[in-house]
Specification:
By secondary structure, the protein is of the alpha+beta class. It has a single domain, classed as Sandwich (Jelly Rolls). It contains six helices and 20 strands. A hairpin with a 4-residue loop joins strand 6 and strand 7. The two termini are 38 Å apart.
Length: 293
C-alpha cells in the first residue's frame, strides 16, 4: 500500500483529480470488493419466486418482494464494511481513509474556504456497477422535500460538503478488457460538461451540491468498483438517526462507525500548510483562524 503524494489536477468548478493517488494490489482489491458487495447483497436480499406470478424476485429482510430486473439494474453497495473486524480489511480501509484525508488538505489549499465547511466525515463504502447498470443525474445533497413534512428520515445527505471517490478498477477500451476492468461507465458532470474516465488509484473530489450534479454512465461490460464517501458539516440530529462519533471520547465506536468527527483536522491542515511554504498570512492559513486566535 503506497501513498503516492501526487499533485492535484483542477478539472474546473471545484472538481479535482488526484491521478494515481494511491497504489494497491488492485487484483486483490477487486476480488475483496466484489466479495464484500456480494455478502452484503445476499444478506439484504434473497432470490426467490413470487407465489402469485411465478417470476424470480428478491425478498428483502423486511419481507417485501422486489422485481429482480429492477434490483439488478441498481448499483450494489457494501455499506457496512467498517464494522468488519478482519485485520486485512481494516488495514486496507484505514489506509484508504488516511490517504483521502491527506489529499483533502491539498483540496483545501486550492479552495481555502472549503476548510471552514468540514466538521466530520462519512467514511467510504463500496459501490458496484454490473453491465447495463447506471446512475442517473443527481447531486449528493439531494433530499426529497414534501410540503408539510419538515423533517425527513434521510437528512444526512444535507450535511455533505465535499464528495470523495476512490476508484478501485479502471475503465478501458473494448480491446483492453480483462477480468479486473470494465468498459464505459464514465463519470459525467452534467452542468459542467466534465467527463472523467475512471482509473484504479485515482481520487476524485468535488462539491456535493447541485452545481456538481453528476451521473455514472452505463457500464457496457465488466464490473465497475469505487469507494464513495463525503466530508460533511453540521450538528447531527438524533431524531432522524444521525450519529457522528468522536475518536477522542469514543475511540472504539469511532473505529467501526461510518460517521466520525475529525478532531485533528485543524492541526493537520496547519502543519501541511507550513510544511509546504504557506505563510501564516496566506488565505489558506488565515481560514483556520478562530475568533479566539
Amino acid at each position: 500500500m503506497i501513498f503516492n503524494n501526487v499533485d492535484l489536477t483542477d478539472l474546473g468548478s471545484g472538481v479535482i483529480l488526484f491521478e494515481n493517488a494511491i497504489s494497491l494490489d488492485w487484483h486483490n482489491i477487486y476480488n475483496l470488493a466484489n466479495h464484500l458487495v456480494s455478502v452484503e447483497h445476499s444478506n439484504m436480499y434473497t432470490l426467490t419466486t413470487d407465489p402469485e406470478t411465478g417470476e424470480e424476485v428478491y425478498l428483502n429482510r423486511s419481507g417485501y418482494l422486489f422485481g429482480k430486473e429492477k434490483v439488478d439494474k441498481m448499483p450494489k453497495r457494501a455499506s457496512c464494511i467498517h464494522q468488519n473486524l478482519d485485520p486485512e480489511i481494516k488495514s486496507i480501509l484505514n489506509f484508504i481513509e488516511k490517504s483521502k484525508d491527506k489529499y483533502l488538505l491539498k483540496y483545501f489549499a486550492r479552495f481555502p474556504l472549503a476548510y471552514n465547511c468540514v466538521w466530520w466525515k462519512v467514511k467510504g463504502h463500496i459501490v458496484s456497477y454490473s453491465p447495463g447498470v447506471q446512475l442517473g443525474p443527481h447531486s449528493d445533497i439531494s433530499a426529497e422535500y414534501v410540503y408539510g413534512v419538515h423533517q425527513t428520515t434521510q437528512e444526512l445527505a444535507l450535511r455533505n460538503v465535499i464528495t470523495s471517490l476512490v476508484y478501485l478498477n479502471s475503465s478501458v477500451e473494448d480491446n483492453e478488457i480483462n477480468d479486473y476492468s470494465y468498459t464505459e461507465g464514465h463519470h459525467y458532470f452534467n452542468y459542467l460538461d466534465i467527463k472523467y474516465i475512471p482509473k484504479a488509484g485515482d481520487i476524485l473530489m468535488f462539491p456535493s451540491n447541485y452545481m456538481a450534479a453528476h451521473e455514472v454512465q452505463s457500464v457496457k461490460s465488466g464490473t465497475r468498483l469505487s469507494y464513495l464517501g463525503w466530508y460533511s458539516q453540521g450538528t447531527p440530529n438524533p431524531n432522524v438517526r444521525e450519529d457522528v462519533r468522536d475518536p477522542i471520547s469514543e475511540p472504539e465506536l469511532s473505529n467501526i462507525s461510518t460517521n466520525v468527527y475529525m478532531p485533528t483536522l485543524r492541526d493537520d491542515y496547519r502543519k501541511y500548510l507550513l510544511e509546504n511554504n504557506y505563510t501564516k498570512e496566506s488565505p489558506q492559513y488565515r481560514a483556520t483562524n478562530l475568533n479566539t486566535d
